[in-house]
Write a structure and sequence with these properties.
Chain B: It is an enzyme of class 3 (hydrolase). Chain B: This is CRISPR-associated endonuclease Cas1. Chain B: Pfam families: Cas_Cas1. Chain B: Keywords: Antiviral defense, DNA-binding, Endonuclease, Hydrolase, Magnesium, Manganese, Metal-binding, Nuclease. The complex is a heterodimer. Chain A is an alpha+beta fold. Chain A has helices at residues 16-29, 44-57; strands at 7-13, 31-34, 37-41, 64-70. Chain A has a single domain, classed as Alpha-Beta Plaits. The longest helix of chain A is centred in the first third of the chain and has 14 residues, at 16-29. Chain A starts with 6 loop residues before the first strand and ends in a 23-residue tail after the last strand. Chain B is α/β, with parallel strands linked by helices. Chain B folds into two domains: 8-79, Ribosomal Protein L15, Chain: K, domain 2, CATH 3.100.10; 88-334, Four Helix Bundle (Hemerythrin (Met), subunit A) (Up-down Bundle). Chain B contains twelve helices and twelve strands. Chain B has a four-stranded mixed sheet with strand order 1-5-7-8, with helices on both faces. The chains are: A alpha+beta, B alpha/beta. Chains A and B meet through helix 1 and strand 3 of A and strand 1, strand 3, strand 4 and helix 11 of B.
Chain lengths: 93, 336
């Protein structure tokens, strides 16, 4: 049985022509973390949607998208050195 | 610990909220924040935020409820996307239950208030506060005896009033001196504890609206409160059993741990008392944590959060009006 993945870290390397499109798709589902890195909680159903939307846009011969799938945000620790994008995940804005 | 995008966002700084690339973007003096539309369920706008109708159609498509508050923290209304789950059958049965079978349901709500208050205060009794014993006994023994004897809704409401009044009186035994409440004052609250109670109740009330939205129930047909116009009174009913567990526990927690202090977190202006911005932040964060807190549910046999428990209460009520299964609101003692 496949696991229920609920948390994703997504990184991409996309040709200049399509990078905007990919950015737009990703920010519907995940929170921007760095310029080409997204992450956040996601439901298994939304993960399928995200994947299929990305597959339509990218050129599979040139572009690169990686999804690090995790069962929750409690399975890893994070360390940031240097400037950080301002807090996009805050509950209170 | 990595953070994830919350399903509820509270916006408290002035700015512009807009639709951009089929997702949400919030701009203020700090910069741009991208809010992923697919992880969002609710928005709380606690300040003056600019929006346009284009955004509303978009939020409606994504089934997101938006709650509006004014400068004073007063609840002003909810943007309620076109009813996604309407069922004429359930609505008719709900109306029928309200006309013919209102009292037993209302009694169940009051019984749950008493049981849950008992559960909350018992903690303080257990830790050496013996003075609240008479009230606890009254809740545990006399109220359950009184309830089945009640024949009319107004008598029931006066009993409910009595329960709350005596609950507020116990505050002087468990809270620090500057938070003692003489009596409940609403619209506008004039002392710190009343301000906290009002704000907390409002947040819970709006949370319940969002939860009922995901069921077939009609928001205006209520049982304990008079089903009147202009208000979603069913949400007042359903939030009642959770008030002691969520609102008052949060208040006791932030006040007794000195996370909220009278000198730092309140504005006293004109004749009333308001939570200021840092105070609101502390309170909302504490309350949100409590709503998300998970526990083993007795009958569900899995872990659920208080927020889900509110939705299950709505499901239970629906099952009661449709199939006639007995209705008991969420009771803290049922959790395992």
């Amino acid at each position: 049985m496949e696991k229920n993945y609920n948390y994703v870290i997504l990184v991409y390397d996309i040709g200049e022509k399509r990078v905007g499109k990919v950015f737009k798709i990703c920010k519907k589902y995940l929170v921007p973390f760095q310029k080409s890195v997204f992450r956040g909680e996601i439901t298994p159903a939304n993960l399928i949607k995200l994947r299929s939307e990305l597959q339509k846009v990218i050129d599979k011969k040139v572009d690169f998208v990686a999804l690090f799938k995790m069962t929750g945000d409690y399975v890893f620790d994070e360390e940031v050195i240097g400037v950080r994008l301002h807090n996009q995940e805050a509950m209170l804005l | 610990m990595a953070k994830s995008a919350p399903t509820t966002r509270y916006i408290r700084t002035p700015g512009t909220l807009g639709r951009e690339d089929n997702s949400l973007t919030f701009r203020n003096e700090k910069g741009i924040t991208h809010i992923p539309i697919n992880s969002l369920k609710e928005l709380y706008l606690l300040n003056e935020i600019s929006l346009n109708s284009k955004l509303f159609t978009f939020l409606s498509m994504a089934n997101i409820t938006v709650h509006f508050f004014d400068y004073y923290g007063q609840f002003r209304g909810t943007f309620y996307p076109k009813e996604a789950r309407v069922s004429g059958k359930v609505m008719l049965l709900q109306a029928k239950a309200c006309l013919e079978n209102r009292l037993p349901i209302a009694v169940a709500f009051v019984g749950a208030i008493a049981a849950n208050i008992h559960e909350v205060l018992y903690h303080y009794f257990k830790h050496g506060n013996k003075e609240i014993k008479p009230y606890l006994d009254w809740l545990k023994k006399e109220v359950p005896d009184l309830l089945p004897k009640i024949k009319k809704v107004p008598t029931l409401l006066s009993l409910e009033g009595e329960i709350w009044r005596r609950f507020y009186e116990t505050f002087q035994l468990i809270l620090p001196e500057d938070f003692v409440m003489n009596h409940r004052v609403k619209r506008p609250p004039d002392n710190p504890i009343n301000a906290l109670v009002s704000f907390g109740n409002t947040i819970l009330y709006t949370k319940t609206i969002s939860q009922i939205y995901h069921t077939h129930l009609d928001q205006t047909i209520s049982f304990l409160h008079e089903p009147s116009d202009r208000r979603f009174s069913l949400s007042l009913d359903l939030s009642e059993a959770f008030k002691p567990l969520i609102v008052f526990r949060t208040i006791f927690e932030v006040v007794n741990n000195r996370r909220i202090q009278v000198s730092k977190h309140f504005d006293k202006k004109y004749n009333y008392c308001l939570l200021n911005e840092p105070g609101r932040d502390v309170f909302i964060t504490a309350m949100e944590e409590r709503l998300q807190q998970v526990f083993d549910h007795g009958t569900m046999k899995r872990k659920i959060s208080y927020l889900t428990a509110i939705k299950y209460d709505a499901y239970k009520l629906k099952k009661h009006v449709v199939e006639g299964t007995p209705f008991t609101p969420f009771l803290e003692k049922d959790r395992r």
